[in-house]
Amino acid sequence: LLRYLKYTLDQYVENDYTVVYFHYGLKSLNKPSLKWLQTAYKEFDRKYGSQIFAIQFSAVFNILLTISFSFPRYKKNLKALYVVHPTNFIKILWNIFKPLISHKFGKKITYLNYLSDLGEHLKSDQLNIPAEVIRHDENLRRKQKGKLPPVVKVPPPRPPLPTQQFGVSLQYIKDKNKGELIPPVMKETVSYLKSKGLQVEGLFRRSASIQTIKDVQKLYNQGKSVNFDDYHDIHIPAVILKTFLRELPQPLLTFECYDHILGITSVESCLRVTRCKQIIQGLPDHNYIVLKYLMCFLHMVS
């Protein structure tokens, strides 16, 4: 288990990563011994050793808690830790240790009572969830059915602002920006990254503060100016560009292209470039222009 944990984490810790911990299934019969945990503490990363050691209360969760105390290499790029089906025991012990753990790391922990809650944060359908965990989740839901769910008032949908940039179509942005084909968010982020980000390694691999990204989105949606120099983080405009593209109701490579793109793998290698050109040339004119603008920039980055 220890070698597996190290091998798995070492593939991801140099970049931003997220951990999902399914607590169900941990029992006294399969819980590692205190000696194993002490060995794990020594082995995880000797050059970051520390005298602090968390007491044993859960196998993998204990390792994660130990990481939060002692190993900058493993916790630096950890963006979120989701604990699914947590017990009250875990919550109590976490509260005990909370004063000893950095506030920044503590904000990364999220408890999720059901698998459906996980879907609000991640694309859970892409996770390999053990069958035992799924059955346990179904049992919990059956028990919950007898209880009345809390009343949640859903606010009526609002029309987008005239200056809205995120979550609206390219056509909407064009109509509200005097016919400009390249959305302001793309133009400003690309311009800034061209001038100050082309030499940055891993420009699009790192993420940024979620709250900062929300603040910048709000400024754009309200039609206010954004000065990326104020944030002192080159990854913020990079994340803003990715977020803008991700939130387009219709992607640049439209939904109609989906099956054609998947089918490229079945095309003979000598014909694939031709097939890709055909797909791109079949895009709506506006999508084609914006995609070309984006790809020219990404070519510079590469």
Automatic annotation (TrEMBL):
<dbReference type="Pfam" id="PF00620">
    <property type="entry name" value="RhoGAP"/>
</dbReference>
<feature type="domain" description="Rho-GAP">
    <location>
        <begin position="168"/>
        <end position="302"/>
    </location>
</feature>
<protein>
    <submittedName>
        <fullName>RHG08 protein</fullName>
    </submittedName>
</protein>
<dbReference type="GO" id="GO:0005737">
    <property type="term" value="C:cytoplasm"/>
</dbReference>
<dbReference type="InterPro" id="IPR001251">
    <property type="entry name" value="CRAL-TRIO_dom"/>
</dbReference>
<dbReference type="GO" id="GO:2001136">
    <property type="term" value="P:negative regulation of endocytic recycling"/>
</dbReference>
<dbReference type="InterPro" id="IPR000198">
    <property type="entry name" value="RhoGAP_dom"/>
</dbReference>
<dbReference type="InterPro" id="IPR008936">
    <property type="entry name" value="Rho_GTPase_activation_prot"/>
</dbReference>
<feature type="domain" description="CRAL-TRIO">
    <location>
        <begin position="1"/>
        <end position="141"/>
    </location>
</feature>
<dbReference type="GO" id="GO:0007264">
    <property type="term" value="P:small GTPase-mediated signal transduction"/>
</dbReference>
<dbReference type="GO" id="GO:0005096">
    <property type="term" value="F:GTPase activator activity"/>
</dbReference>
<keyword id="KW-1133">Transmembrane helix</keyword>
<dbReference type="Pfam" id="PF13716">
    <property type="entry name" value="CRAL_TRIO_2"/>
</dbReference>
<dbReference type="InterPro" id="IPR036865">
    <property type="entry name" value="CRAL-TRIO_dom_sf"/>
</dbReference>
<feature type="transmembrane region" description="Helical">
    <location>
        <begin position="52"/>
        <end position="71"/>
    </location>
</feature>
<keyword id="KW-0472">Membrane</keyword>
<keyword id="KW-0812">Transmembrane</keyword>
